[in-house]
Amino acid sequence: MAEALGRPPAPPHEDLAARKTRLPGIVDGMAFGAGQSAIIVPVPEAEPAVGAWRTRHDSAAAAGVPAHVTLVYPFLPLADVDVAAVRAVLDAHPAFEVTFAATARFPGVLYLAPTPATPFVALVEALVARWPEAPPYGGAFPEIVPHLTVTERAPEPVMAAAEAELTAALPISARVTAAALIGYDGAHWTHRAWLPLRADQPGPA
């Protein structure tokens, strides 16, 4: 299997467009079309806790997509994405710490809820302000609810078992330093670019 998306390497502004991470399939239960793109925040710290559940009960994971929080799907057609412009938008936002301390549910979906959620919301809002033609999930939902999907369309006993196991494994802490642009070629998702957040500024000497 091709290399999985994980923690962005240092230095954060290194051009990684040549790195191709195969991510065939579906993100958050929604099928993609050829030429689409998405912006996600990979959360490798969550993989030990959620990986086995996602592999069995999340079509995105089965297709190769790592544990993540979606910022915008679908984003612009891949051919129209100006990576420098996206980086400029996200670089205005600082890197941040996040904790996944609780599970939550949508109908048919079990997910980990990030705390704080506001930095993810701010990133989504900044992207939508710059590209209003690309709201998350095509504007299907009125509220932005950041989430890391664990299971989708799983039977209630499976969701309950996952919830119990994850509760014992929580909290999960992570530092978010970058988002990732991924694109679909009709058969596979590929990693196209890291989109770094603003690095911490050094304090006074």
Quick synopsis:
This protein is of the alpha+beta class and 205 residues long. Helix content is 24%, strand content 28%.
Task: Characterize the structure shown.
With 205 residues, the chain is an alpha+beta fold. 24% of the residues lie in helices and 28% in strands. It has five helices and ten strands, in the order βββααβαββαβαβββ. It has helices at residues 47-57, 59-62, 83-90, 118-130, 156-169; strands at residues 26-27, 30-31, 37-42, 68-72, 96-106, 109-115, 148-152, 172-176, 178-184, 189-196. Strands 4-3-9-10 form a four-stranded antiparallel β-sheet. Strands 7-6-5-8 form a four-stranded antiparallel β-sheet. Strands 1-2 form a two-stranded antiparallel ribbon. A hairpin with a 2-residue loop joins β1 and β2 (30-31). It starts with 25 loop residues before the first strand and ends in a 9-residue tail after the last strand.
Q: How would you spell out the order of helices and strands?
A: EEEHHEHEEHEHEEE
CATH topology: Cyclic Phosphodiesterase, Chain: A
Q: What would CATH call the homologous superfamily?
A: Cyclic phosphodiesterase
Q: State the end-to-end distance.
A: 47 Å
Helix and strand content put the structural class at alpha+beta
User: Can you tell me the overall shape?
Assistant: globular
Beta content: 25-35%
Summarize model confidence as the mean pLDDT. 84
* CATH architecture field: Alpha-Beta Complex
The count of DSSP E runs of length 2 or more, i.e. the number of strands, is 10
The domain count comes to 1
Can you tell me the CATH class?
Alpha Beta
InterPro entries: Cyclic_Pdiesterase (IPR009097)
Organism: Spirilliplanes yamanashiensis
Protein name: 2'-5' RNA ligase family protein
Pfam family, one: 2_5_RNA_ligase2
